[in-house]
Amino acid sequence: MTKELQLVKYYEFIRYAMTPDEQSLPDLRRVDWHKFYQFACEQAIVGIVFEGVRRLGEKGLKPPFNLLIELIGLAEQIAVQNKILNKKCVEIVREYQNAGFQCCVLKGQGNATMYPNPHRRMPGDIDLLVMPANGGCKTDDVRRNVIQYVKEKHPDNMKVRYYHVSYQDKRIEVEAHFMPNIMNNPFYYHRLQKWYNKRQSEHCQNRVELPDGVGTIPIPTVEFNIIFQLAHMMHHFFDEGIGLRQFVDYYYLLNNKKKLEEVKGQYLDLQSTLRYLGLLKFARAVMYVMKEVFAMDEKYMITTVDEQRGKTLMVEILKGGNFGQHSGLTNRSMGSKYFAKTLRNMQLVREYPVEALCEPIFRTWHFFWRLSY
């Protein structure tokens, strides 16, 4: 079987696994389950694949027994970790609120609530957007206050970045964001922050119930998430790489007809917003992935498809896996990684001239900025 045909088989099964009411079984006769399992691990979608395997009832369709046992064990670990993170999310939100901040949970456990089975999303860290309780505070002031708070609570393991401070809380990685995310280009960066600031007061009112009755957490609105998660994917695309897990998240975000219609009815000019924020080209590439991998219906798409940029994006997804961990970039020395990333981004100049050229400049500036902390 050719690599292209193999990928088609993988995508067919992923679509089957992601849709609980899908009855027609994909053709699995020529699937190499060991390679598929490795692919799922690299892309951090093992929980999704397990949901599909669990529904396979016909004899001979399931993976070999030893691989099936390994898959079941890993799926159970994912479920346990999700339960731990859900409880921790509720605790941390309460902790920041008691300290006088407003906050909402970005991505992560909030995204998991959009899945048919919230315990099957591969968990990561806990990301919080932290805001002053009374609002109206400048970013520098918020940064200073949050860093001071984290320094008092977790002085031994905190790391400061321009837009968040990270630390370990009982071996769980937490990122407290002063701003949701950034753009490499300063012009679009300021536009994006302005767009975020107009909407940040809405987030803490938008709460979702977590599984198993552990409580509720505040998460961003659908409109905010459409822009925020797209910008997040774009930033990682130019930084270290990105895998299918983030696209599964985005699929479930967009594939909610009722909520998306509310957004489109309230914000009719989404195309103009994407163009204004410098996200339109990348959004069209993402829509290509949504079409090719997930066969997303056009009515859920936020813009048109760009096949050329979409194919470039797919190459990076398949080469690097989850956050580019299999691209060979992440395990290099600092100097070697700097030049390798720069060379990689120069190869993207033709399709994304502004972001590709600005990324090494921002990365260099950020390195020296971090030295001050």
Quote the beta fraction: 5-15%
Task: State Rg.
Answer: 21 Å
Count the helices. How many?
15
**Uncertain parts:** none
How many beta strands in the DSSP annotation?
Answer: 7
**Could you describe the largest sheet, including whether it forms a barrel?**
5 strands, mixed
Structural class: alpha+beta
Helix content: 55-70%
Order of helices and strands: HHHHEHEHEEEHEEHHHHHHHH
Spatial arrangement of strands, main beta sheet: 1-2-5-4-3
Mean pLDDT: 87
Principal-axis shape equals globular
Distance between the termini: 53 Å
How is this structure best described in words?
The longest helix is centred in the N-terminal third of the chain and has 34 residues, at 65-98. The mean pLDDT is 87. The chain is 56% helix and 9% strand. The chain has a five-stranded mixed sheet. It has a two-stranded antiparallel sheet with strand order 6-7. The protein is α+β, with helices and mostly antiparallel strands and 373 residues long. The protein has helices at 3-18, 33-42, 46-54, 65-98, 108-112, 139-153, 186-197, 222-239, 244-254, 257-266, 270-276, 280-294, 307-320, 334-346, 353-371, and strands at residues 101-106, 126-132, 159-160, 164-169, 172-177, 207-209, 216-218. Among the domains are: 1-63, no CATH class; 221-373, no CATH class. A hairpin with a 3-residue loop joins strand 3 and strand 4.
